[in-house]
C-alpha cells in the first residue's frame, strides 16, 4: 500500500482571511513532517483563478466573488501561496475548481507513484474536502479523511460530513494524531525491533535450554 496525503486550500489568502482555516494549521504543521518520515507522498493543492477571468464559468456568483477578491485568489499572487512549508520531494498542484482532481494532473501523479490510498485534509470540509474525496473514490483510491485536519465555516456542517456523510461512503475518518498512515517512527519500527530482540535472546540461549 502506497499512501499520499492531500492537503487542499491551505494557502495564504485563505488562512489569513478565514479564521476557521487557521485552526487546522497547527495539526497539519505537526503531521506533514511525520508523514514525510513515514514515506507518505505529500501533495499540496492550492486554488487560483486567472487574472483575466478566462477560466470563470459565466453567471456563477461564487466564482465571481473569487475573481473580485483580487490578489487573494489570482494566480501568481502571494495569496495563493501554500501556507505550510513545502519540501523538494512534495508535489504542488494548482486547481481551478473545488476538487483537487478537477482539471489537474493529480491522478496522473498518484498513479505514477503507485499510490492506492489517500488521506485528505484542508478546507472547506463541505467543498474541497468532500469533492476531492468523492473524486478519489470514483477513481478507486482508498480514502481517509483527517477530521481535525479539516474545517468548515459552519461547524455543524463539518460534523455532519464527518459523522454521517463520509462513513456512509466507506471513507475512514481519523484524527491527525491517530492516522495509521503516518504513525510515529518508533511505533512503526517497534514490531520489527521486538522480533530482533527476541531472536537475539534466543541465539544467546544454549542448545539444551540451560542458562549455564
Description of the structure:
The chain is an alpha/beta fold and 212 residues long. Helix content is 41%, strand content 18%. The chain contains eight helices and six strands. The protein has helices at 12-17, 19-22, 25-37, 61-68, 106-112, 125-138, 155-168, 185-204; strands at 3-8, 41-47, 91-95, 117-123, 142-151, 172-174. A six-stranded parallel sheet has the order 3-2-1-4-5-6, sandwiched between helices. Strand 5 (142-151), helix 7 and strand 6 form a beta-alpha-beta unit. The chain is globular. The protein starts with a strand and ends in an 8-residue tail after the last helix. Mean pLDDT is 89; it is low at 185-191.
**Separation of the first and last Cα atoms:** 47 Å
Low-confidence stretches: 185-191
**Total beta-strand segments:** 6
The whole-number mean of residue pLDDT values reads: 89
Count every helix, treating DSSP H or I runs of 4 or more residues as helices: 8
Structural class: alpha/beta
- The helix fraction, in percent, is 40-55%
Largest sheet: 6 strands, parallel
How are the strands ordered across the major sheet?
Answer: 3-2-1-4-5-6
The geometry reads as: globular
- Cα gyration radius (Å): 21 Å
Strand content: 15-25%
H/E element string? EHHHEHEHEHEHEH
Amino acid at each position: 500500500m502506497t499512501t499520499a496525503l492531500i492537503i487542499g486550500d491551505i494557502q495564504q489568502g485563505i488562512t489569513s482571511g478565514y479564521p476557521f482555516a487557521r485552526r487546522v494549521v497547527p495539526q497539519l504543521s505537526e503531521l506533514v513532517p511525520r508523514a514525510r518520515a513515514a514515506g507518505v507522498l505529500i501533495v499540496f493543492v492550492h486554488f487560483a483563478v486567472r487574472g483575466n477571468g478566462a477560466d470563470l464559468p459565466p453567471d456563477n456568483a461564487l466564482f465571481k466573488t473569487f475573481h473580485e477578491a483580487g490578489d487573494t485568489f489570482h494566480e501568481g499572487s502571494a495569496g495563493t501561496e501554500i501556507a505550510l512549508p513545502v519540501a523538494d520531494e512534495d508535489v504542488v498542484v494548482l486547481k481551478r475548481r473545488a476538487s483537487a482532481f478537477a482539471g489537474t494532473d493529480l491522478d496522473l501523479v498518484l498513479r505514477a507513484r503507485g499510490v492506492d490510498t489517500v488521506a485528505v485534509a484542508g478546507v472547506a470540509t463541505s467543498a474541497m474536502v468532500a469533492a476531492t474525496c468523492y473524486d478519489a473514490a470514483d477513481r478507486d483510491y482508498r480514502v481517509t479523511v483527517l477530521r481535525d485536519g479539516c474545517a468548515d465555516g459552519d461547524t455543524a456542517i463539518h460534523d455532519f460530513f464527518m459523522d454521517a456523510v463520509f462513513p456512509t461512503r466507506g471513507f475512514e475518518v481519523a484524527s491527525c494524531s491517530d492516522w495509521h498512515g503516518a504513525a510515529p517512527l518508533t511505533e512503526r519500527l517497534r514490531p520489527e525491533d521486538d522480533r530482533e530482540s527476541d531472536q537475539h535472546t534466543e541465539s544467546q540461549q544454549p542448545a539444551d535450554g540451560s542458562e549455564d
